[in-house]
Amino acid sequence: MTTAFSLVEPAPAKLNLALHVTGRRADGYHLLDSLVCFAAMGDRIELAPGPLSLQIDGPFASGLSVADDNLCLRAARLAGAEVAIRLTKNLPVSSGIGGGSADAAAVLRGLARMGHPLPARTEVLGADVPVCLASDPARMQGIGEALSPVPPLPPFWMVLANPGVALSTPQIFAGLERRDNPALPPVPRLPDLAALTGWLALTRNDLELPAIARAPVIASVLDALRAEGAAFARMSGSGATCFGLFNGAGRAQAAAASLARHGWWSVATELASPAAQG
Known about the structure:
Elements: E1 7-24, E2 30-49, E3 53-57, H1 71-78, E4 83-88, H2 99-113, H3 129-134, E5 138-142, E6 146-149, E7 157-162, H4 169-174, H5 193-200, H6 208-214, H7 217-227, E8 232-235, E9 242-246, H8 249-260, E10 265-270
Parallel strand pairs: 3-4
Antiparallel strand pairs: 1-2, 2-4, 2-5, 5-6, 7-9, 7-10, 8-9
């Protein structure tokens, strides 16, 4: 019998607009200070009453397994729910834009709509899960569990581009030259894209250079984004997805089409609207 999926939750791509590594705990976890936002595009979760199961489709389905350690299944178990899950995987796997965490968060949001309370300590599923639950811009500190609101970000278009290289997050952290970098400067009101890019120029992604050392093609992606007119370009998370910020849909769409001719995954999208996440 075919499952009738009725509840849909978006799982938007997460971007680290800035990511500073500020320390390391005794247990080995790194301390971060990051400005996070979300794209209008991402994966898609559909839910129906159980028993617990997982189907995966979409352009990047082949990179995932329906094994018991899949984050969607782990999220359902954490919530104590018997639910059928269908994941449409539109985002590259292991790509620095929070795909698995966003998927788990979408499962938890959907289960809450079905009457299952949100579990405590969702960070046990992954450091990005708490920020992905709200999918709103935020400053993320600690190991991901310390979230604080930021002034509203101005609207902008972006191009996400990934050269098809999967990077190991632990290996990228291992490549850091130092782990006690300064924290982010205060996040002010940023009325337009010029103000945002000016503030971002004062910040870093401390994982970008270690990632480029392991996958030099990342530098080529960043160069291509800048050559296409991005007002700002940077790698997200531990890579290899990069983003370029643009001040209009047409320029972003043209840039995405140009980067795709390199054989890279590339998509133009907008900053997610908080109202779209309800």
